[in-house]
Amino acid sequence: MSKHFEPVIVGFLCNWCSYRAADLAGTARIHYAPNMRPIRVMCSGRVDPQFVLKALKDGADGVMIAGCHPGECHYVEGNIKALRRFLLLKRMLTQLGVEEERVQLVWASASEGIILAEAVDRMTEEVRDLGPLNWQENVLGRGNGHVVSIQVETELESEEV
Amino acid sequence: MSERVGVYICHCGTNIAKTVDVEEVATWAGEQPNVVCSREYKFMCSSLGQDLIEEDIKEQGLTRVVVASCSPHMHEKTFRTACERGGLNPFLFEMANIREHDSWTTDDREAATQKAKALTNAAIERVVHHNPLEPLPVEINPNTLVVGGGIGGISAALELADAGHHVYLVEREPSIGGHMAQLDKTFPTLDCSACILTPKMVDVGQHPNITLLTWSEVEKLDGFLGNFTATIRKKARYVDEEHCTGCGICIEKCPFKVVDNVFEAGLGTRKVIYRPFPQAVPKYPVIDVENCVYFQRGKCKACQIFCPTEPNSIDFEQQDEMIQIEVGNIILATGYDLFDVSRIPQYGYGRLANVFTSIEFERMVNASGPTDGKIVMRDMESTPKNVAIVHCVGSRDENYHKYCSKVCCMYSLKFAHLIHERIPEAEVYNCYIDMRTPGKGYEEFYHRLLEEGTHFIRGKVADVSDVARTETEEGKLIVQVEDTLIGKQRRIPVDMVILSPAMEAKPDSKEVSQLFKMGCDFDGFFVERHPKLDPVATMTEGIFIAGACQGPKDVPDTVAQGAAAAARVAGLINRGTVMMEPVRASINQEACSGCRICNTMCPYNAIIFHEDRKVSEVLTALCQGCGTCVAACPSGVITGAHFTNDQVLSQIEGILWDVRVEQELVPGD
């Protein structure tokens, strides 16, 4: 690992708006952080909270869920379902000591490549500032709610590595 | 479970290879579990590239295929077909998007290569869990619903009807014709608008294959491609269409006149029982309830008293009628509105009497309009000697609409020509930002105007006022504009100002797009499936768009789009049955606990609950495959075909190949 920390963010993009927004960002040659790795789902409503947990557990430093704007969902209101789940999941993750910035919900329509690209850049910055998530140690290991102190330790450990 | 996966990394010329080390990715992919062959190739989508897949499936016995190239929205179908030709079920294929989502978004070769590996690996891990699927056949109902009776809707309806298919044409106003019926001449040929439009309207009215529903609106839409059910509200006209002959005596006898703000743009009047214009199709009048003395005060009934038909055609008791129709496809041609010019107060519309909008002027120069074609000022008698025409009112303006409305330059030129024609001594000033005349014969028309002596001033008008600074400005409207070609501020005193407002989306376009379950952009225009290659289809199968509801457009473009949409629909009707993606949910009936959580999740009411067995079931024909129920099922017994938990979870593992290593060092808790 290089000294410089580059976060890995898993993105769940809905097929109709956000995935196409990312397509458009590419077609328009908008440059943005390469840290977000997209996974296509038909609708943001398909994003099972366990997908998010799985990604975080398996080494992602953050997860972005992106869907159509409220009211513009291809499936009428799947994005609203996604929003509800997201809010509940975030409350749980915060209790586990996972910072809010690590899981974000973004609305980007198919014509908003720039909005998606900006969201990826912004989130990458935020997660980079937070440092690695290190789920195994921080959440499962010695969590106990003392996230801040544990993070310092983790940073020390990773420096040793 | 051991699968034989073939991986193909595309260079896309240099589009991918420039930023992604494709050789490196291909070599690396070849070392991953299950992968038996890994290649890179210049253009995977070319016939040679596709042959490669086909041959490898046959010769190396591949059971799964991964192509890392562009967006699946671009070529997923291409490669699925290639797999099918090789004898592999097309759903045993997965695509990794390393162009739009990777190589085009960065210059950092190392990062791009790393991301390409992650995306390719995700596809490899996912594809192993794919199941062969069979597309679902859907029968196409041969009837079509066309919404909007302007020239776009008329063209689409006539094309389909002439091809022998039945069309329901729904129009919100009492007559079809749309904006085109209001115009006087059409640019650049100066054809009389009514002369070319009304025969088409009559064709629609008389066509045996067209059911015309005017004064009607679609209220509800259910179903999917091939099998839509639309609920239409047919508003009460208070005129019995069965018996009315359209003689017009009721209109003649009606004692009340009101200002016509719709068709005559406020310049003229109409009766309270009215037809929007004499050539209206259908010919039946409609009663304007808000202004009708009988409806407001219970007296009058002049129309009913004088109606000559037997039985009487005036029916004050008529109610709105709800009609349900079954159609296979829908074409939306709902048109546009004009920008409200009073939103730009410095142009003085509404405050300065002789500032007109383009549509007011259009009605004025129309021979059948309120002034019989005479160009007059607001006092309805004096002739203007100088006229300024202001282009781009609300278009190409950061504060209102950024886009160019495309038609204003041309109709502003047409106005200048008509003024020269009717008032030869008048001076005409066209104030434009840029002159945009792309179209057959359009630039030539501009040159003709240059020769006719129109003054062209390149500059955006700052304001229009009636505050005179000199004697020559007394009693005039003063147009303040910077002439950017000579670099000077100018004050032009004129008698009349015509504003050319932007074309904008209908105010309810958002609701309409939701009703028809397809997208509309920030400006309110409907979103096409592909801006270049699929301009009349939408993201929703079976719903097509035509005309200015998709973006500003002139008559020929609208007609072309109407015909194009009709051709697409005719193609589907001719096929009779189309194959739909089998991305659908299904519930394991054995394991369902009957909690009914999924029942309320489904936006299409596709999940039914069997009271007897206490289990839920997905009706495949109604399911659209969003997967919301799959994510919601607490027992995890709903499977979303092609997006199963196994597939997505393994994709997550695959995409995190480089950061997952650590976890394996710390065995599971």
Topology record:
The complex is a heterodimer of chains A (161) and B (669).
Chain A: E1 9-14, H1 18-27, E2 36-41, H2 49-57, E3 62-67, H3 78-95, E4 103-107, H4 113-130, H5 135-141, H6 147-160
Helix pairs in contact in A: 1-4
Chain B: E1 5-10, H1 22-30, E2 35-41, H2 47-60, E3 64-69, H3 72-85, E4 93-97, H4 109-127, E5 136-139, E6 144-147, H5 151-162, E7 167-170, E8 185-186, E9 191-192, H6 193-206, E10 210-213, E11 216-224, E12 227-234, H7 249-253, E13 257-260, E14 268-271, E15 273-274, E16 286-287, H8 293-297, H9 302-306, E17 321-327, E18 329-332, E19 336-338, E20 355-357, H10 358-365, E21 386-393, H11 408-422, E22 427-432, H12 442-452, E23 455-458, E24 461-465, E25 477-483, E26 488-494, E27 496-501, E28 503-505, H13 509-515, E29 543-545, H14 555-575, E30 577-580, E31 585-587, H15 597-601, E32 607-610, E33 615-618, H16 628-632, E34 638-640, H17 645-655, H18 657-665
Parallel strand pairs in B: 1-2, 1-3, 3-4, 6-7, 6-18, 7-10, 18-29, 20-27, 21-22, 21-27, 22-23
Antiparallel strand pairs in B: 5-30, 8-9, 11-12, 12-17, 13-14, 15-16, 19-28, 24-25, 25-26, 31-34, 32-33
Helix pairs in contact in B: 1-4, 2-3, 4-17, 5-6, 5-14, 11-12
